[in-house]
User: Fold this.
Amino acid sequence: MGIKAIQEEIVDEFSMFEDWMQRYEYMIELGKSLPLINEKYKTEDNIIKGCQSKVWVHAELEEDKLVFTADSDAIITKGIIAILIRAFSNQKPQDIIDADTEFIDEIGLKEHLSPTRANGLVSMVKQLKLYAVAYQTQLN
Amino acid sequence: MLDVLKIRNDFPILNREVNGKPLVYLDNAATSQTPQQVIDVIVDYYSRYNANIHRGVHALSQEATDMYEQARLKIQAHFNMEKSHEVIFTSGTTHGINLIANGFSSIIKEGDEILVSAMEHHSNIVPWQMLAERTGAVLKVIPMNDEGELLMDEYDQLLSNNTKLVFCNHVSNALGTVNPIAEIIKKAHEVGAAVLVDGAQASPHIKADVQQLDVDFYTVSAHKMCGPTGVGVLYGKDEWLNKLPPYQGGGEMIAEVTFEKTTYADLPHKFEAGTPNICGGIAFGAALDYMNNLGFDEIATYENELLEYATQKLLQIEGLRIYGTAKEKTSVISFNIEGIHPYDIGTILDKLGIAVRTGHHCAQPIMDFYGIPGTVRASFSFYNTKEEVDKLVEGVERARTMLV
Assistant:
């Protein structure tokens, strides 16, 4: 499935929630249940700095697709990471470079991707795209 | 007794909603809200007599200068400073600290020792580290115990004839501890060291008397005491202020300028280069009037009541730990719930319209001391109510249920 289709699927899922409580409960569930990264990749190098919650991101190429794993020590942040990974991981680097993140707004989590929010998610998205650019260059 | 419900009517912002819920503002240690009386002064300034000060011969300039200088006198009186030129207007506490750190560059020598307390805000650590790097001086730390109280015996051990400067906050922003600054100052003076006290967090709760404290420098920000952001005051004993070199060059701070030589203006203008935050200074004076009309004793009594009520209620929540349990505390509660990241609690509280601070509170060494990434900090002001404390407690309980 392409990034756009996955994003639409996520938007559909979230449209079933009636209020913020349900949305957050869902994200907390996502945050609690998913093992998002191999412990050995939770290194200082993979930390996105300057945020209240720690965010780790790791990327590797599998054939022509980029696979992301990530984690956070804050559970709501981790829930959003789970959503971002679902949308962006296992995709071709060029598609990741071209993709937008407006679906986050549509599912009512816009504030978490505000550039001024100190949770590391904006930097994380930037980091995903930087990895995609780097690996795209490698593929070329 | 404060009539809190009546007082709340002075603060228009307290009527607003956040995320569809009435705002519960418990981030007062970050910045306090502004009463209508102060907002009116700001509007009045820009509506009637906005002009540059100390220079113009025209009526508006004279009016603005008079009002600005009146504010200086109010600040002098509030902190019981001996002379009005000991009031240096700054952009805030951080500016005041940097001004002194910079000034001491020419006084501090290699091998001199600078003491800072273990519970300082980054703004009272970094400038001294920079000073130590520039001069070759040694920075030493006065440690604290688990309750968040300074170890005064250790302080005694650290003091020596090499000690030239001691820096300490009056009240810790992250823990709320009221430090024994009178004793700290007295002991520092016994070895000939100067003391700078960061009064930013104390100033909304405690009326400091700089002469009685015999403190060398005391610095505050207006926005912590119902005034606007971007303005503050540095107090310095005039013998020190005369000794220290100017911080920034520019207009206002000179007596005479030729390309060969400049002579500096007298105090306080020597340290007030450029056009200051005129409106901010005047509004700071109005904010002090507002708080003094309420009365600092009454404010402290009421805030202590809120602190005790909130502490007792919060401690009933399973797994909740309070950081900073000093005997002498202002109305600040820093806490965590076992197994939950403070950021998550802050996010849920925000959804409920409750404003708290989360994170390391610009005091990473304190967080390292406790081995935590940060805390949730609720800080109460005289306009908060027990009902708001109840909402906080319900919100934290709800967050805990969702997150555990």
Notes: DSSP finds six helices and three strands in chain A. The interface with chain B takes residues 20-21, 24-25, 28, 52-54, 73-77, 118-119 of chain A (CB under 8 Å).
